[in-house]
Amino acid sequence: MNFREVVGQFEDKTILVIGDVMIDAYVRGNVNRVSPEAPVPIVSLQKQEERLGGAANVAINLVAMGAKAIVCSVVGNDKSGKQLVTLLTENKISGEGLVFSAERQTTVKTRIIGNNQHLLRIDSEQVDDVSEQEAKDLIQKVATIIKKNKVDAIIFEDYNKGVLTEKTISEIVILANENSIITTVDPKNKNFFAYKNVTLFKPNLKELKEGVNKQFSFNETVKFEEAVLLLEQKLNNQISFITLSENGVFIKDKTNQYHVPAHVRNIADVSGAGDTVISIATLCLTAGLSIKEIAEIANLAGGLVCEKSGVVSIDKELLITEVKFILKQEA
Questions:
Q1: How confident is the model at residue 306 (pLDDT cuts 50, 70, 90)?
Q2: According to the model, what pLDDT value does residue 72 have?
Q3: Interatomic CA distance for residues 100 and 91, integer angstroms
Q4: Residue 173 contacts residue 202 (beta carbons within 8 Å)
Q5: CA torsion angle for 12, 18, 23, 24 (degrees, to 10)?
Q6: Which DSSP helix (H) or strand (E) runs through 218?
């Protein structure tokens, strides 16, 4: 496999990212004294910034690899919703799948950083399920985009913020399967077993244990594999892809299964690694790679972003180099 040629194919791919989008806001400054009003640090403001977060970070990774990403979500018709659209445009991501609601607020997570230390996080969000009408509007947006575009894959990125309801999930999966579109899922427990008949389902080990309601470690091979089988019996998914943190990843389809160990890394921050893994795995699926190749490359990508502080997207050239030298493949 020539991975550089595979990456070249990504430029022709259009991926829908459906789920909970949000803004990650940062307030940074220096701390030199404690407030006389309460025993809390005073942050002298130096910098404020807003970044795309949640499902939108998946889209950023797709664009970083050369693909076209279209975000589909329900957001507030508010100031933060408008800021979200601006950030999508700046990051070359299409927002044509957005539904704007006067009854909902856009999720914003604000982190207060003093002397490079995380002091406080303020979440402005609404986590109840979207209304039936909002869900219907979102499904219609997706249907329209599929009709207008050659969509290669749909990623469901679930952060339990209410955008993905059981009805929304089931109807979009049916729509995707009718149109031979790959479906991949980065789940949360609330809708864990709503994702029936998808192509690839990617929980982490903790989510798998909570989903099947069983306790085990990855090293308990029999119990682990029984849990994966139980998952597949309930979901009828084609591929199970389990991320295992320091133990790497496990992937399985109807005929083969592989464990890919983690590579030795200088871990700085694991934030956003799951977003990178689902993005790369999905793109590799659209390029027709084997499940072993998908696991190896997505595992490398997730490790690379963990070497950098904060939520960062994958570096395409760095990943190509990593595949070449670590997997001994021509890149």
A1: low
A2: 98
A3: 20
A4: no
A5: -80
A6: none
Classify residue 70 as exposed, middle or buried by CB count within 10 Å of its CB (0-12, 13-18, 19+). buried
Task: Tell me, yes or no, if 275 is annotated catalytic.
Answer: yes
Residue that has been written with the tokens 């969509």 in this structure: 151
Beta bridge partners of 71: 17
Q: Round to whole Å and give the CA distance between 261 and 102.
A: 47
Residues 62 and 60: their CA atoms lie apart, in Å, by 5
Give CA–CA dist 306/304, Å, rounded: 5
Residues 302, 295, 240, 250, CA torsion sign:
negative
In order of start, what are the domains of the chain with their CATH numbers? 3-31+42-326 (3.40.1190.20)
Which stretches of 184-267 are DSSP H helices? 205-212, 221-235
Whether the pTM exceeds 0.85: the reply is: yes
Check 129, 158, 186, 275 and give the catalytic one. Answer: 275
Residue 222 CA: distances (Å) to CA of 158, 202, 218, 234, 273? 29, 20, 9, 19, 27
pLDDT tens-digit readout, 78-115:
999 999 999 999 999 999 999 999 999 999 999 999 99
CA dist., res. 199 & res. 236, Å (int): 9
245-254 contacts, C-beta under 8 A, 24 or more apart: 245/204, 245/205, 245/270, 247/205, 247/218, 248/299, 249/277, 249/295, 249/298, 249/299, 249/302, 250/218, 250/224, 250/295, 251/291, 251/292, 251/294, 251/295, 252/228, 252/291, 253/291
Answer yes or no: is pLDDT of 331 > 60: no
